C-alpha cells in the first residue's frame, strides 16, 4: 500500500491532470492579487466611511443620515463605475475588484446600516428603524439605477 508520502514523490506524468493540491495552489496564486487589491480597496473605502461618520456623527436615537447618505452616494458611484468599465473603458482586470468590490464595498456599509437599525430599535425608536430600513434600500437602489441611466445617457450623447 502506498502512503501519501510515497505518492508525492512519484514522477509527474504530463498526460495526467494535476493533483487537487496543485490545482488549489495555482488558483491561490491567481487569486492572490485579487484578494490583495480587494483588501487594500476595502481599507480605503472603510476609512472614507469612518471619516464621514466622524465629520457628520449621528446622535443616539437620531435618524442615521450619514449612513444613508454614504450608502446612497456609494451606490450612485457603483452605477456610474459599472457603466464606464463595462461600456466605455476596457479596464485592467484588477480595477473592478479594487474599486468596485474593495473601495465601494468598504464605503457602502450595509453592516453599519444594520447596526444603526438595531441601535434605533434598542433605543425604543422602532418606527424610525423601520423607516431607516426601507428608505436606505430604496435610496440605494434608486441611486445606482439613476447614476447608471444618467451615465448611459451621457455616453450615448457624447458618442453622437
Describe, in plain words, how this protein is organized in 3D:
By secondary structure, the chain is mainly alpha-helical. The protein has helices at residues 4-8, 20-55, 65-88, 95-107, 110-122, 126-158. The chain starts with a helix and ends with a helix. The model has no long low-confidence stretch (mean pLDDT 86).
H/E series:
HHHHHH
For the CA atoms, what is the radius of gyration?
Answer: 23 Å
Overall geometric form? globular
What amount of the residues lies in strands? under 5%
Provide key terms for this protein.
160 residues; mainly alpha; 6 helices; globular
List the helices and strands and how they pair.
Elements: H1 4-8, H2 20-55, H3 65-88, H4 95-107, H5 110-122, H6 126-158
Structure at a glance:
The chain has helices at 4-8, 20-55, 65-88, 95-107, 110-122, 126-158. It is mainly alpha-helical.
